[in-house]
Amino acid sequence: MDDLTGIIQKNYAQIQSRIDAACQHSQRSPESVTLIAVTKYARMEWVAALLELGCTHLGESRTPQLEERAALLPDHIHWHFIGPLQRNKVRRTIQHTCLVHSVDSIKLLSAIDRIAAESNLQPRVLIEVNLSGEPNKKGFSREELLASWSSLCALAHVKIEGLMTMAPHTSDPELTRPVFRELSQLRDQLQSMSPAQVSLQELSMGMSGDFEIAIEEGATLVRIGSALFEGLESGN
Ligand SMILES: *Cc1c(COP(=O)(O)O)cnc(C)c1O
């Protein structure tokens, strides 16, 4: 086994066991949490090593790299789109993805819905929420989302399956807990306002520095990049 494979195997195993421990700690089943390996900065050899380990959920944040990799890698991979999505790239992006995490405006959601209708697709999406109010962060504010919820639910071709957030950068991961808790409560509130066909089962929250706390607060999808590739030299 070469160094690269060994390092990724060790990182992956450690993250898996930390996910399991966080699930146990919060009395959740480990199957209720999916690890998404964020490969936006990973070289192809690293991605190949991850696939060897059985990782099948990969996250990319740029459409060209997503397309390039989806063309090269096996069909059974579930691609998650987690970056800012330009409206002129929606068509190409939804063809490859199982879930778009980063729907940050009504305009974008409407564009996805229109293109979905034209392409006869039913893309699954999450709504990105900016709960920390940081101006450089993307996403709906809580107020904006509550006010527009019924019109978002009226779009017939997209399937809104939950919410996503990025916690503020902080040296103390405990400081992210209130943000994760608020996302979970907002999901419950929106669910109670939703028509019967809308089921908000997904909460995409938690990254390398704070995923255990996110799991304790109900995350179903954790997006982990740097912790998986720790010890390797970055490719780009
Ligand atoms: C890069 C990125 C991640 C992964 O962050 P790490 O701290 O490297 O784990 C997760 N989510 C989004 C939206 C990202 O852009």
Description:
It is a single chain. The protein is α/β, with parallel strands linked by helices and 236 residues long. It has a single domain, classed as Alpha-Beta Barrel (TIM Barrel). Helices cover 41% and strands 16% of the residues. It has helices at 3-25, 44-52, 63-72, 90-96, 106-119, 142-153, 177-192, 211-216; strands at 34-38, 57-60, 78-81, 97-103, 124-128, 159-164, 202-204, 221-224. Helix 1 crosses helix 2 (44-52). It is globular and about 55 Å long. The model has no long low-confidence stretch (mean pLDDT 95). The structure holds pyridoxal-5'-phosphate (PLP). Pyridoxal-5'-phosphate binds at residues 38, 40, 61, 82-83, 166, 207-209, 223-227.
How many beta-strand runs? 8
| pLDDT < 50 runs, ≥5 residues | none
> Largest sheet, order of strands side by side?
7-6-5-4-3-2-1-8
| Total count of helical runs of at least 4 residues | 8
Bound molecules: pyridoxal-5'-phosphate
Derived structural class: alpha/beta
Q: What is the rounded distance between the termini?
A: 24 Å
> Which architecture per CATH?
Alpha-Beta Barrel
Shape: globular
Name the average pLDDT.
Answer: 95
Helical content band? 40-55%
**Secondary-structure element order, as H and E?**
HEHEHEHEHEHEHEHE
Question: What is the CATH C level class, in words?
Answer: Alpha Beta
